[in-house]
Each structure stands twice: as structure tokens, then as C-alpha cells.
Design goal:
It is a single chain. The chain is mainly β. Helix content is 7%, strand content 45%. It is built from two helices and ten strands. Strands 1-2-3-10-5-8 form a six-stranded antiparallel sheet, with no helix packed on it. Strand 2 (27-33) and strand 3 form a beta hairpin. It is globular, with a radius of gyration of 16 Å.
Length: 128
């Protein structure tokens, strides 16, 4: 019988030690990821927009403070999510958002967003 693989080492992170990545004048993020999951602090100032997009990654958006209005699905239903609430977005569901007030969300993705890791997320970086 082969020897089992040794367990992976744990890692500890502190949000305040992770530099914020500015994507626009009103939108910054911080990210932590492992092999199969990603956490992201998304800081959106009032009026900040995330254009409608879709991705293979399953997503949970937990609003820590503020409020976001999402447009969800092909028909772009409006869903307002406030502090203390969580929105689940299944894989490939079109969605976008606007900050109704200064807001901070904790977004969880599985698997990790490779476009965010390698910086090819132009839909966020080049907004008009």
C-alpha cells in the first residue's frame, strides 16, 4: 500500500496586510486563493459599477457593509443585496452590479478566478 500524501501546510492571512488593487477610481479589491477556492474583498464606492459579465466560477457575494444592486440573468432582474445578506450566483449566470452606497463585499469563488489572478479581467479595469 503506498504511503499517503502528507497534509498540506496551513496559511494564515490578514486582510489589512494585503495591498488593495485599484481597478478603477471607485473600485478596489484584495484577494486570497488556494487550489479550489478564492476569497476577495471588493470595496466599491457609491456609484461604482461592475459591468454585466458571466464566468464558469460559482460565486457567493456576502455584503459586509453598504448595499449593491445586481442585474441578474438574461432578463437582467434587479436584486438589491444589503449588509448581512448573501447572493449566490451559479456558474455562467450573467450578472452586473452598482454600489447604492459605499460598500464592502466578501466574494467567494470556486474555482479561483484565473482572469483575476493573471490580470486579464479587462471588463473591470477599462470601464467608461
Amino acid at each position: 500500500m503506498p504511503d499517503p500524501m502528507p497534509p498540506a501546510e496551513e496559511t494564515r492571512h490578514t486582510w489589512s496586510h494585503i495591498p488593495a488593487e485599484p481597478l478603477t477610481d471607485l473600485l478596489t479589491r484584495k484577494m486570497i486563493w488556494g487550489d479550489r477556492i478564492m476569497l476577495a474583498h471588493i470595496d466599491m464606492k457609491k456609484g461604482s459599477r461592475v459591468p454585466t459579465h458571466r464566468h464558469d466560477n460559482e460565486q457567493f457575494s456576502y455584503i459586509l457593509s453598504g448595499a449593491l444592486k445586481f442585474w441578474v440573468g438574461e432578463e437582467e432582474r434587479e436584486v438589491v443585496v444589503r449588509a448581512g445578506e448573501v447572493l449566490h450566483l451559479p456558474s455562467n449566470l450573467p450578472h452586473g452590479a452598482i454600489a447604492l452606497e459605499d460598500s464592502l463585499s466578501l466574494d467567494v469563488f470556486s474555482p479561483p478566478r484565473q482572469d483575476w489572478i493573471d490580470g486579464t479581467d479587462d471588463y473591470l479595469r477599462h470601464q467608461k
